[in-house]
Amino acid sequence: MQIKNGFEQSVYAICLLSMLPAKSVLPGEAISNQIGASPTYFQKILRKLSDSDLIASVPGKKGGFKLKKSPSEIRIYDIFLAIEGQQALYYSNNVLGEMVPKKDKEACVLSDLMERAETSWITVLKSETISSLFTELHKEKELQDWVNQNLVQ
Amino acid sequence: MQIKNGFEQSVYAICLLSMLPAKSVLPGEAISNQIGASPTYFQKILRKLSDSDLIASVPGKKGGFKLKKSPSEIRIYDIFLAIEGQQALYYSNNVLGEMVPKKDKEACVLSDLMERAETSWITVLKSETISSLFTELHKEKELQDWVNQNLVQ
DNA sequence: GATAAACAGGATAATCATTATCCTGTTTAT
DNA sequence: ATAAACAGGATAATGATTATCCTGTTTATC
Ligand code: SF4
Ligand code: SF4
């Protein structure tokens, strides 16, 4: 069991996009290369982020991606949700259900616990945003330089 | 991304074993059948639980499995750990590491957050044990009957 | 002792999810 | 019109999980 690699890559992709001057975009291929991901696949990951309204895509020549929300509005959980979807950690396969048909009202004890655990995990992931997490990173000159060299418009 | 099915199955397997009278065992095949798992595969899952000292295996004719700890000492997290191992939810693929070689002392901000999230998840899973979770289940007569019919010794 | 029923554990196959590639279509700056 | 970019469907490669098989060891019973 492992969270998809695309999650970490997405965090950094969004991080790069957060260093972008207004009205500029970064082409998907540049991002993929910088992150070291396969471009054709990472385009699909970028689309997931775009479907979740975290980033915006600009088609056409001089097109690319840019943030749709400000870095302080993008929680790490939003990225997790965009990539992994809901109930990502656990869902019941109803093993006990097969063993003991339980009365409708009775909640399943294990499912309850697992849900509480997942809620707790999610709460932590909601507690930080791209901007709260990467204030330090943004001081990195190399990265900002790379962004400046690769942006379009 | 999904926690292995074997985790939920293990919880119920241990639950069954907790209904066993002292000095008796349940054969692995009986457990597998009741849970609806492939016997050959589930034997390996039972071994993981046994490797983690949650259950004990008795070889030979009239052999089988029984609990090694009391139900109140078996936390749901112990079962999770036995099946999924450590760092099960997330580990960094060092994407940022490639992007910005960071000074040794500086902890990685994303890894830190993910660790805090996992710790929080684990804390919830440590908060309940087999006995705290399944007091209700143990009142189910059908299950106790099944155990009585399938136990050995 | 021989036999049967159970676990141990290695090797291997089947299945399924993730990752990667390819191709056709649409958008837009030049 | 052309080129460079995204959209999205189809499909292949890879890797992890699940399942099977087989050989060996333990132990109760005959
Ligand atoms: S009791 Fe809950 S966790 Fe257990 S099998 Fe049913 S639904 Fe799943
Ligand atoms: S900074 Fe941390 S999370 Fe990011 S790539 Fe490095 S080790 Fe991984």
From TrEMBL, chains A, B:
This is Rrf2 family transcriptional regulator. It comes from Neobacillus rhizophilus. GO terms for molecular function: DNA-binding transcription factor activity. Signal peptide: none annotated. The lineage of its organism: Bacteria, Bacillati, Bacillota, Bacilli, Bacillales. It holds the Pfam family Rrf2. InterPro entries: Tscrpt_reg_Rrf2, WH-like_DNA-bd_sf, WH_DNA-bd_sf. PROSITE patterns: HTH_RRF2_2. One of its GO terms (cellular component) is cytosol.
